[in-house]
Amino acid sequence: MSAKNIRIEVMKAIEGKVDGFIESYLTPIETIWQPTDFLPDPQSENFLEEVAQIREESKELGYDFWVTMVADTVTEEALPTYESWLMDVEGIDQHGGYGEKQNGWSKWVRQWTAEENRHGDVLNKYLYLSGRVNMREVEVTTQHLIADGFDIGTDRDPYKNFVYTSFQELATNISHKRVGQMAKKKGNKLLAKMCTIIAGDEMRHHLAYREFIKTIFEHDPSQMMLAFADMMKRKIVMPAHFLRETGESIGAAFENFSECAQNLGVYTAQDYIEILRKLNTYWEIDAIRSLNDEAEKARDYLMKLPDRLQRISERMKLVETQHKFKWVEANGMI
Question: Which residues are catalytic, by number?
Answer without folding.
Answer: 33, 76, 116, 119, 169, 172, 201-202, 205
